Structures are given as C-alpha cells and as structure tokens.
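Notes, Module 5: Reading structure tokens.

Key idea: the token line is not a picture. It is a compressed description, and you learn to read it the same way you learned to read a sequence, by spotting repeated patterns. We will look at two proteins. The first is printed below with its tokens.
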Amino acid sequence: MALMSRTASMSRIKRGLLALGGAAAALSAACGAASAEVIGKSTPGEIGFEPAASQIARDIFFFHNAILLPIITAVCLFVLALLIAVMVKFNERANPTPTRTTHHTGLEVAWTIIPVLILVVIAIPSFRLLSEQLILPKGDFTIKVTGHQWYWSYNYPKSQDGGFGFVHQGRQGSETGPAPPFDGRQ
C-alpha cells in the first residue's frame, strides 16, 4: 500500500514537473515572439529607440549611444561630485569661518570654455547628421495624403498602378465622400 501511494505521488510530481516545464516553454516562446524586432513599431515596456530602418537612423543611434550618453553621464557625475565636495568641504561643521573670496578668474574662464568645447564636440557630428537627413532616398511609391479638418484622405497615383483614393473618417458619422483620383501631379 505504501509502495503504491509512493509511486502515485511520484507520478503526480512528474506530471506537475512536465506541466511546469511546458508552461515555462510556452512562456519562453511567447517572450521570444514578443521581443522579436519589428521595424516601425514600438512595443510596450520598451526603452530606447525603435529598430533602425535606414543607415541615417543607425548613425543617429550611434551618435546618441556613443557620443551623447557618455558626455551627459560624465557631466552628471562631475556635477554630482562637485555637489558632494561642496557639501562636505563647506558645511558649517567643517568650515566654521567661511572665506570672503568672491572671484576666481581661472575658474570662471574654465566654466565658460569647457561647456563651449563640449558643445562643439556635440555639434560637429550632429550637423553632419542633419545635413545627411536633407538628402531623401527615392521612395518606392507616392502617396498624396491630405489633412482635412476632421479626417484624412489618401490618394495613390495612376502612374504607379494606382489611380484610386480613400478617405479615413476620423469621427463616426462624418460625411466626407470619396477622395478624388490622383494622377501623380500636384
């Protein structure tokens, strides 16, 4: 009798472990599918930029991650260190008689020149990126999108096997009518 109850409990444990393993596998598959890279769509709980669809976007990501983040991290840590140093060095207990010094020319020059140099380091690659963004790649097709007061109309040109349009009604019950055909000219 004891042997039967032991084997029955062992089989229950095995079934429970199999069920737990199956649930873990299903959760793992769902998480893998949810974390798959989707271009042009953000996902809930995501931190950072959407995946890049062009070389300019990859350059912007590099600029942000390799240039801007280290600079702002260094500046924040430096300011934090200065604040802590000032709190420790110039509190009333450590410095009961404060000094009457009001100016320090070297310090004033440094806190003017260093931020300017940091901004120049940031400006050079950012201007290059801005100028690259002015060169638009050739599109695969043309869509004429017109914003009206409460809705949008979309027209596809006849020259690209289109010649049709449709209206997206932003509000239920809007009387908008069909979009006029678009031949590719303004």
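Here is the second protein, with the sequence above and the tokens below, as before.
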Amino acid sequence: MIERNNIGFWIKIRGEKFILQALAGKRNKVNDLFHDCNITTFYFLQLAVISILICLVFQSFYLLITKEKIVESLLPSIDSFDMAMANKEAWESVDKNWRTGVEYIYQQIITGLSDVGVEIIDKTGIKFDPNLHQSIESITTDDESKDHTIEKIVQAGYKIGDRVIRPARVNIFEYKK
C-alpha cells in the first residue's frame, strides 16, 4: 500500500513502513533503507518510486489541462469587459463610481489569471508570430520597417507557459511599394 503525507511518500510492506524520502530530497536515508532490504524488496521499492513519479507527472498534466479549461471558460466574460471598456464614449458616460467598481473587478480577474501563470498576448508594434497571433486584416503601409508587425489587437490572446490557449486576433502591416 502506497500513501502520501506531508513528509513524503511511504509504503507498507509486511506491516512495516518504509518512507520514500527521495521525493522529499533526502536520498541518503532512502539509500540506507535500500541497503537493508533484500533484492526483491529493493526492486519492489524502485517500482513503487517509479509508479509514484509517473502518477505525479500525469497529475501535473491533468492540472495544466484543467487550468486551461478554466481559463477558456472565463475568456468570453473577459472579452465582454474588454468590449465594454473599448467603447470610450459609452464607457465614459457611465456613472464614475460604477465604472470604477467594474474596472476594479476586471483588474482582479486579470491579476488572478496572472498569478496562476496565464499571460496575455496583447502587444502591438512587434513582429507577427503565427504561433501567438491570428491575422484578421492586413493594413497596407509604405514603411518597409513595419512589414509584418502588429498594428492593432482586435482580441487579446492568452497562454500558459508555452501553451497558447487562444491566439491574439490582430491586424498587421503589410509593406507594398
């Protein structure tokens, strides 16, 4: 039987508890434990450690996928905030106290996402990257230095680490002579 506590993982063999502290960074004690074991128990403990590590990898992957699903479910609400605040004329006509409260709530959501590792893809003036951006419209320019740079963010994108949850929808400059 394998169980986990706040120290590390432990396994019960023939009524005796063996603490697998390698996961807690205490290799010497684990080596001492293995030294006193017969060869069958030694191999069993190695398999147990490998099994635990595999479970941890799958658990981490599951948490990443779950985090992505949660962020994806929040995106329509965040987009609604963005659209409401983008219409400056209508937004400025709303009662100042109410507007300040809504902006505060929006900032809390964005800060919360940032705290769990979500990055917003919303920079203009940078080179178009098809891994991060989806081009919606090309704007003709006579400035060659602006060729394939982002002119405007139509809809912000989001990513967690290197995984893009949603690419940013952008307008890009296209150089034409």
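Summary for the second protein:
- The beta strands are 2-4, 9-13, 16-20, 118-121, 133-141, 150-155, 157-160, 163-166, 168-175.
- The first strand starts at residue 2 and ends at 4.
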